[in-house]
Amino acid sequence: MATDELSVDSPMGEILDALPGARRALFSRYHLGGCQSCGFPPEETLASLAKRAGDHDPEAMLSHLLAAHEHDKGMLVSPAEAKAMLESESPPLLVDTRTREEHEAVSLPDSTFMTEEVQQRLFAGDPGQSILLYDHSGRHVLDHCSWFQGHGLKNTRGIDGGIDAWSREVDPEVRRYRIEID
C-alpha cells in the first residue's frame, strides 16, 4: 500500500508494511507497540488503537508516522547509490548487521561484521566517519541507523532493501537466500 493511501482506518499491519519505522515511531512518541503490554494485532486499525491506548488523536498519530517515515527515508540509500559511495575516493565503512552465520555464508565485499568490539570502536572513534550499514532485506537497518545516529555517528546510512536488494539490483553474483523461521 502506498503511503498516500494510508488512513486512520488502515489496519496496523498495512501501516507497518508501508512505513517500516512505524513501530519505532509509535513507541518513541506514544509508548505503543514496543512490548506485549502495549502491543497491537495487525488487523487493529490506527483509529481503534488510538482510542484504546488513551484516546489519542488518530489523525495526529498518522501525521507523526508519515513525518517519521520521511525522516527515515533520509537515512536510506538505494543499492545503486551505495555502490557509488563504495566506489568513491572516500568510501564509507561498510558494516554488516546480520547474524554471524549469514555474514559467513554470503556478504558484500570488504564489509565488516558488526560485533560489540567493532561497535565500541566506532562509538569511540571519529563521529564524522561515514558508515554504511546493511542487513538482509532492509527490515532492521533503520533501527540500526537510528541507534548509530543516536550515539553521535550522524553520517550513518543504510542500504534500502539490504543485501537482497544489492543482489537483485547491483551484483547478481551475490547469492540470494531466505530466512526460514519455525
UniProtKB/TrEMBL annotation:
Transmembrane segments: none
PROSITE patterns in alphabetical order: RHODANESE_3
Keyword rRNA processing carried by entry: no
GO molecular function: transferase activity
Highest taxon above the source species: Bacteria
UniProt protein name: Rhodanese/sulfur transferase
Residue intervals of the Rhodanese domain: 88-175
Family annotation (InterPro entries): Rhodanese-like_dom, Rhodanese-like_dom_sf, ScdA-like_N_sf
Keywords associated with the record: Transferase
